[in-house]
Amino acid sequence: MTSTFSISLQALTELNPERHWNFVKIDINLNELQHYRESIIKNVIYPCSTVLDDSIGSALWFAARGNGILHQDNVPYESLAEVLLSGLGADEQLAGYSRHRRTFETGGWKALENELDMEMNRISKRNLGRDDRVISSLGKEVRFPFLDEQFVNYLRSIPIWLTADLRLARGIGEKYLLRYVARHYLSLEQSSKYPKRAIQFGSRIAKLESRKEKASDQCSRLTTTNNNTMNDEE
């Protein structure tokens, strides 16, 4: 195991040796992706319809389902967890996306603040509803600790350079506050240095179909059936 997650898992195990950690490897093939996208995923992602929605929604659905191989024993495993945690909101508030660095480099602190305000104003429409529908379709619930009202208000009460200092290098400055906590309070020294890797790239689901598409493009794999259904109803 050499992935960033496996290294983080090792760190957690060393810090909490008495706790049992399950590392479930979820590996799907193209046929499985296409089957569940057509029968379930595209319907719960709707009305979101971009290539990015397809990649994130599909990866999230299979992760939330929790069917895979238990690494420690190399046996099939199905998670019985009914309540899941999502990190949604951390990047939007703590400048975790590469576009935030470009905004800062061209417009400074004020431009970055405006960008993050815009992120939070649209998060329910752009991300939150989609992710909630995807996970709810599996009969599970999701919690968003980074969108807790008290946490959001706290971040807004302190200077932005204490939460995200993009004067620092990638892997250090973005989500600076979270990295600081991980390093100094949780003893996750190595994990605190990893640059962000989006779920669609970390899971490699974006490469499974080997299509040359932009994230913002309309995804024909999501819209075809829905459009036909709407036309039939008309």
From TrEMBL:
GO terms for biological process: asparagine biosynthetic process. Residues 212-234 are annotated as: Disordered. GO terms for molecular function: asparagine synthase (glutamine-hydrolyzing) activity. The keyword Thylakoid does not apply. It comes from the Eukaryota. This is Asparagine synthetase domain-containing protein. Residues 106-226 form the Asparagine synthetase domain. Keywords: Amino-acid biosynthesis, Asparagine biosynthesis, Glutamine amidotransferase. The keyword Protein transport does not apply. Residues 223-234 have a biased composition (Low complexity).
